[in-house]
Design brief:
Elements lengths: L1 H18 L6 H21 L1 H25 L19 H7 L5 E4 L6 E6 L2 E7 L9 E8 L2 E6 L1
Parallel strand pairs: 3-5
Antiparallel strand pairs: 1-2, 1-4, 2-3, 4-5
Amino acid sequence: MVTTIVVLAVIGILAFLFELVLPGGILGIAGAICMVAAVVLSFAEFGLMWGIVALVIMLAFAGTMTWIWMKFFHRLPFTRKLVLEAAVGSDDELKARQTLVGQTGEALTDLRPSGHAKIGGEKLDVMSESGVIAKGTSIEVVDTRGPSVFVRAV
């Protein structure tokens, strides 16, 4: 019975750790079931005191292994490809679009409400702030929200 408890505990911890790499939830659930089964069998086989000892050991071991895994996960040779190393949340193009506010240009197409315009020598997709703006009308950039450039007729 001791062998069964140890095997269930090891399988549970390994399945839980593999769940950190392989998403889906199945391995995590299977690992949790194995760890709970190991603790329940410890209570049934050895009584309350040894069951609690097994529970504490299982939680401490699982917690320690998880901490070690998370601390060194990105340094392992086979997991380096899984970790994003590029900067996230910085978009130079969006920052450049913010400098367009106040600049003027010309509508290259009818803006109903979106279309193309030439602003600062560059052809851009724009949206009219309100209503339709005819092709050839002088326009002014009034706002940028994300990738969208909003204009109005001058």
